[in-house]
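Notes to self after the call with IL:
- keep both proteins in one doc
- input above output, always
- annotate only the second one for now

Protein 1:
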Amino acid sequence: MAELEILARIARRRKWSEEEKTALLAEVEAAGGKVSVVARRHQVAESLLYNVK
């Protein structure tokens, strides 16, 4: 029998400062409202940029 290796990935939540949130939103506006481009650049889900307040 072949050995089976199980890899566990520990996901940690990022903590965003108000300055970081503001910078991300400003970047979305500078990109002409292209949330997908900014999300891809920062490796975050698009939904996070829609929910930033």
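Protein 2 (the one to annotate):
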Amino acid sequence: MPLADGTIYMDHAATTPVAPAVLEHMLPYFSEQFGNPSSIYALGRRGMQALDAAHETVAALLGCRPTEIIFTGGGSEADNLAIKGLAYAPRRRGNHIITTAIEHHAILHTCQQLEREGYHVTYLPVDHDGLISPADVEAALTDETALVTIMYANNEIGTIQPLAEIGALCRARRIPFHTDAVQAGGILNLNIASLQVDLLSLSAHKFYGPKGVGILYARQGTRLQPQVLGGSQERNRRAGTENVPGAVGAAEALRLAQSDREHESARLIALRDQLIAGMLSIPGTRLTGHPARRLPNSASFTLAGVEGESLLLNLDLLGVAASSGSACTTGSVEPSHVLTALGIAPAEARGHLRLTLGHSTTAADVDFVLARLPEITERLRSLSTTPAPTA
């Protein structure tokens, strides 16, 4: 179903619209219930009660204690607090961090900063489907390993990692295990016991909540050095007057997403598979990411002989919003670090198209895109100096 302006929106991995029910929950805290939660009078106490309720809602969905939930200013901040907070904490284990070559830049850039400060970081490779090997993680663990951070599902190719297996390895060595679950928040299981994680990051705007609100789960006993200083909010872990409407909206958005997760995932998988089958009928098209272990809403491709940016512009002229990778790297002239880590040549990686589905997506939308893309691809290839692929 197109949006109000007629757009067929297929970029739900970049962001999602705030659900009407979520906005309704938030509105009172922008106006009549505006009190500062740190104030002791009734108006402030009502703000604190709303904030406490948001902690409790998220904790119930993750299967943890409300005191283990920290609201932040976004998913990137949650990632930074998890990694730097643990690395800088007193009595940390060592100065070795393990991650993968396909993490979001919120992870990679943070690890690179720590390397400049003397930390040692192991960037594990992935296979051609973007999957990490638990055996590789186990082989990389040392007595100096202070943290393992591996994303739940990749934002560009949709591959889902074997978190429980990796978590079990870390738990056996008593090494903290963090996952960036930003893309998984609305459509995958988030039970921290089954995932075997000690820290988990989420971002509300990926599951129909407000932008600028992140969530970090940190297992009780995990020492974190605050990265935002100035007050005792969030149990001394994240200073600053709390974003009460944001926290309320994030909690409600996550509740709604998880309550409808199984039904919506099944619907999205059917649409995703329809999209993949249709796209692979276009000569020179390759599916990127694992064929089965992938997000229910994520379809990612390379199209030989075509520039991803040209594809996006042509789709936009037809009222279709799509992406050529992470929204955080739009405008970069370099090929995706995720695709090159899969062994895809830079020239092919530049022909990347990511189509991510959501609540508004219908079978008619998928049919429309599949009907137009072959002609767009053929026309762009005819204008290219690169030889067109054969069927």
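Annotation: The chain has a mean pLDDT of 94. The chain has two domains: 8-16+261-383, 20-259.
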